[in-house]
Specification:
Elements lengths: L4 E2 L17 E7 L14 H8 L6 E2 L4 E2 L4 E7 L6 H17 L2 E7 L4 H12 L4 E5 L19 H7 L3 E7 L4 H9 L3 E5 H6 L1 H9 L5 E6 L21 H11 L4 E7 L9 H16 L2
Parallel strand pairs: 2-5, 2-6, 6-11, 7-8, 7-10, 8-9, 10-11
Antiparallel strand pairs: 1-5, 3-4
Helix pairs in contact: 1-9, 2-3, 3-4, 7-8, 8-9
């Protein structure tokens, strides 16, 4: 049990936390959605995603592999409702605890701001980190309704930490965000139409990334027909097959962490929760 966590549920196939292996993965949930600007409910994401994970077999027929990766579910962090910055600090401290145990983090959200704490901990461990950001939105606002810590500013804070960004699936942004991207050298973009028309170019770029990689997946990267229960649904999104290809490519690289965030539902068996659980399940199958 980590210092700032409690255990409401366990992800399917997770191992007992008694004999922890180094160079494994550790799941933590972040039940927080206090800066949500449209559809609330992602604070319940960790519970419904875990529940949905029990719908999968240990043998992954898509990739013709058994899930053999060593991973542990440490429960949810104790968030501070209404205080995004303090919650991010708690996430950071918890991820540092995992890293001290030589465990790589997998975060189930909760709103996207959780990525700030995770990336901050990882940038202290790794000299140069690349963040693969799959999202409908850029999340590069300097402030959102006067707040620097928010689901809409998360990648701006990540970029300030010195990480390179690869943004995939983008189809919504402000003019200021687009101007910011043009003004910097280390943000690569593949918009939604690029993924659908030129997946080979996306794969080629990802294959050639050097160094440690953190994957951050906002569930609104998917088309709302696939994943409707998200904070900010946006039409013309990606499909599950796109994510399967991207994960299959990235899992050959040095992936040091993953988050799957913005599942906003209070209903067990929700479509979005099932897709989110599948992402984590596929990742754990492939990363071994």
């Amino acid at each position: 049990m980590l210092l700032n966590t409690y255990e409401p549920w366990k992800f399917a196939f997770s191992q007992e936390n008694e004999d922890i292996k180094e160079n494994s993965f550790g799941i933590i949930g972040v039940p927080f959605d206090s800066t949500t600007s449209y559809h609330s409910g992602s604070r319940l994401g960790p519970i419904v995603v875990r529940e949905a994970s029990f719908g999968f077999e240990k043998y992954n027929t898509i990739f013709n592999k058994d899930l053999t990766t060593a991973f542990y579910d440490f429960g949810d962090v104790n968030v501070v409702p209404g205080n995004c910055e303090k919650t991010c600090n708690i996430v950071e401290d918890t991820v540092k605890e995992l890293l001290d145990l030589e465990i790589k983090p997998i975060i189930i959200g909760g709103e996207h701001s959780a990525s700030i704490g995770a990336v901050k901990a990882l940038t202290e461990k790794y000299e140069k980190l690349t963040v693969i950001h799959l999202d409908a939105h850029r999340d590069l606002a300097f402030k959102f309704v006067g707040e620097k810590y928010s689901h809409a500013t998360v990648m701006r804070r990540v970029h300030e930490l010195g990480a390179d960004l690869v943004q995939i699936g983008i189809r919504s942004a402000s003019k200021d965000e687009e101007e910011f991207v043009k003004s910097t050298y280390n943000i690569q973009t593949f918009k939604s139409r690029d993924v659908k028309k030129h997946m080979d170019a996306v794969e080629y770029y990802l294959v050639n990334i050097e160094g440690p990689i953190y994957i951050s997946i906002d569930m609104d990267v998917f088309d709302p027909a696939i994943a409707p229960s998200v904070g900010n649904p946006t039409p013309n999104g990606l499909y599950v097959s796109h994510l399967e290809t991207i994960l299959e490519t990235l899992c050959h690289k040095n992936v040091v962490g993953l988050d799957v965030v913005e599942t906003a539902s209070d209903r067990l068996g929700d479509n979005t929760a099932v897709v989110a659980a599948k992402i984590i399940y596929d990742f754990l199958t492939l990363i071994d």
